[in-house]
């Protein structure tokens, strides 16, 4: 199996396939059943845990928490009907643009 950014697209497809599945056999289905607020809360919790591990300097734990964060983020996207391609397109559009210039452009809109 390839270990690259395509794994996020595969993860999203798996997450989306769990919508409507049995919550007793799928954690993802259980999250969907709890609703957007709970899914968003889990994203926030995982983001905080990711920050904590970054501050501790433990790369292995940072990688594990980052994976948890990305998983929960894909659940949130699927819940909202947001396709990863929409995010990839925005990121691609920002390539080669200074972060400072990109933020100024957003404020001007």
Q: Could you characterize the architecture of this molecule?
A:
The protein has 109 residues and is mostly helical. The protein has a single domain (6-108), classed as Helix Hairpins. The protein contains six helices and no strands. The chain has helices spanning 6-17, 27-34, 36-56, 59-80, 84-94, 99-108. Helix 1 (6-17) crosses helix 4 and helix 3 packs antiparallel against helix 4. The longest helix is centred in the middle third of the chain and has 22 residues, at 59-80. The mean pLDDT is 92.
Short descriptors:
mainly alpha, 109 residues, 6 helices, 77% helix, Helix Hairpins
CATH topology: Helix Hairpins
Average of pLDDT: 92
What is the rounded distance between the termini? 42 Å
The assigned structural class equals: mainly alpha
State the CATH superfamily name: MazG-like
Element layout with pairings:
Blueprint: H1 6-17, H2 27-34, H3 36-56, H4 59-80, H5 84-94, H6 99-108
Helix pairs in contact: 1-4, 3-4
Quick synopsis:
The protein has 109 residues and is mainly alpha-helical.
